[in-house]
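User: Can you fold this complex?
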Amino acid sequence: MCRRETLRGLIVVGALASLTAAAARAGPYEGTADDYAQISQLMTRYSDGLDNRDAQRWASVFTEDGAFRDFHLCLVGRKQIAGFIEQLRSRPEQPGATPRPKSRHINGHPWIEYLDRDHATAHTFVMVVGEVGRDHVGGGIEVTGTYDDQLRRVGGGWLIADRHELSPGDGPPPCPSRQEPLESHDARK
Amino acid sequence: MPGNDCRARWPAASMAVASVLFGSGAAGADYQGTVDDYVQITQLQARYDYALDNWDGKAWASVFTADGVFHMGATRCIVGHEQMIALLEKMAPSYANQPPQQHVTVTGPITYIDKDHAWVHSPIMVIGSAGFIKPLVGGTGVAFTAAYDDTLRRVNGRWLIADRSENTKTADYKPPAACPPEKTQ
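Assistant: Here's the predicted assembly.
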């Protein structure tokens, strides 16, 4: 008898807690710590793939139909994206030319706006820094800019659906975004 | 009467469970913060940088509490959203023809005073931009380094900056001096 009533009480409390949690989730999706960690890791994988000229790794951070765009490039789909890195790798070195120091892409914190549970935009500061060290001459900040991203959750993981790298002085990219225009979080308020 | 004893006991048991479920034990002086707190605070700083770099006064002001204070230099205080928006509107034209710069904040150690109040001391770099097409040689490089000393307050579940001062001299946190509100310009 006692057990049954205690159980009934716990069920009532559990139901109340569940309702409260559901109410808290209502309204615009604001992302979770898991989303943030996944998106931060996505940015890191992108930089690591690019810095190490790992074509498949770099392409894997994009959706299958994802696009990379900057002032002179318009790469659409993983095949084209990976192909760009493969092309860079296959370039013969100029005889007598000093090897270019390795560069690293270093990102700031992404500023993420969630449009819904599966779509988001992010703006991220990036600088490309040439390695400086005992055996490296030169180095320093080579390029700075902002990544304007449209992100999509696919199969539970966040991927880049469209990345526009914008540096100061850049003209518009040679192709527009192929993604559906997404309404900004702020605009909906 | 076992049944009566039981009726007297189960609400107490339920209250104990409810206390755990609703997290009333989280408040207090020993509050250490959660992963959600960290993400929110990091996002606050990212939004601050992006808004400032794009001269978006409304977005910049929105990271502060309604009565938030931005200490500009040692003596000047910008208080409240209206003054903040006006400040950026006034400053933007004088920067229009200068090489663009970008703020990069590294989230520093966060000290939680209690569940709704915290301090954070964060290194900041302002980078003069270097473009691909237009290498802005004159402006490129690290233009400025400092640290932001922030007092944060949780308002309606969201962390906001209640007080921000720029600290270029020391890594030790010092509460900023109180300053009277300026007249809106």
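The mean pLDDT of chain A is 83. Helices of chain A lie at 2-25, 33-51, 55-59, 77-90, 185-188.
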